[in-house]
Amino acid sequence: xxxxxxxIVLLGESSVGKTCIIKxxxxxxxxxxxxxxxGATHEVKDIIIKGKNxxxxxWDTCGNEQFRSITKIFYQGADIAILVYxxxxxxxFDELKNYWYNExxxxxxxxxGNNFLFYFLxxxxxxxx
Length: 129
Description:
By secondary structure, the chain is α/β, with parallel strands linked by helices. The longest helix is centred in the last third of the chain and has 23 residues, at 90-112. It is globular. The protein has helices at residues 18-27, 68-75, 90-112; strands spanning 4-11, 40-49, 52-61, 80-86, 118-124. Helices cover 32% and strands 33% of the residues. Strands 2-3-1-4-5 form a 5-stranded mixed sheet. The chain has a single domain (4-124), classed as 3-Layer(aba) Sandwich (Rossmann fold).
């Protein structure tokens, strides 16, 4: 059985919910308490769309500013970039606009030649008790 590979990378500041989104998508699991991602991790999920087998590789990147140089290697070659921010944290949105969007656009245009890279803005709402 052959698969079409699809690399999805989630980008944004630390603690905006990137790991929670991936865990929910891949395992239908949610844990509101988890450790901060260091570097990057990834998970794989096989899906079928219109009879085509797709291997979805979701990459969870570290959002801490001190690790940004490391994070760059993980989103090269991405087919989809999901930019994530915390609606209760204005700084996370500002960094999305001022850093992450331009970073992914600049770094992937040279790799992909402006082809097939999609940008999605994902709004993540935090529930505060």
